[in-house]
Amino acid sequence: MIINSKFNKGFTLIELLASIIVLIVVGSVITGIISSSLRGSNKANTIENIRQNGNYTLNQMSKDIEYALPFDGKNTGFSNSSTPTVYDTSCLFALGPTPTPITPYTFITVESANNKITQYNCASSPPVLTAGGIPLIDSTVSLLSCFFNCIQDKATDAPRIKISFSIGPKNPNGLMEKITTPIAFETSVTLRNYKK
User: Fold this and answer.
1) Are 119 and 131 in contact (CB under 8 A)?
2) Chain centroid, CA 61 distance in Å
3) Going by DSSP bridges, is the β-strand pair 141-152/92-93 parallel, antiparallel, or unpaired?
């Protein structure tokens, strides 16, 4: 008896299952590679966004404070008010061989050459760094800490203002890759036109 061989062509159930399993494994590997590269790209973009925001804010504040005419004072703020009414215009004197503890301030006010008074404020909760009520940091990132210090070596020296803040991602628990530590920004600025 002769069997027609054209009816014996095709795949068995085991061959179909084996090919499906191979396709699933290859698809999982490709999906993992694409997902990993997208997460890495997202993390790099987030870090770059934080750095751009921090550098812009630090440069803007440094320039405004450095070329300010008078130093109008600093304040730690009040718990019942978002804007202080009284500013302390004297800075801490750094006398003696042991450093004096520095008080962090949440408000600082300077006056520019065109008589524009700017109040830098980071006293709100959650902290928002503002200049005259306008936020300096983009809403896509989160300000985690912020303070100012003021030091003078002698009464005749110009005040030296220290600006310090840290920024992190807006939503570290969401889809955005979590950054383990926030990025800190810090500088010290001496008023050039003090009492001129």
Assistant:
1) yes
2) 15
3) parallel
pLDDT tens per residue across span 16-54: 899 999 999 999 999 988 888 777 787 888 888 889 988
For 169, the token pair is 């991602």
* Secondary structure (DSSP) of 45-108: HHHHHHHHHHHHHHHHHHHHHHT-SSEEEEE--BTTBSS-S--B---EE--SSSPPPPPPBSEE
What's the CA gap between 9 and 5, in Å, rounded? Answer: 7
d(CA 107, CA 191): 17
Residues composing the chain: 196
**How many other CB atoms sit within 10 Å of the CB of residue 84?**
20
pTM attached to this predicted model: 0.68
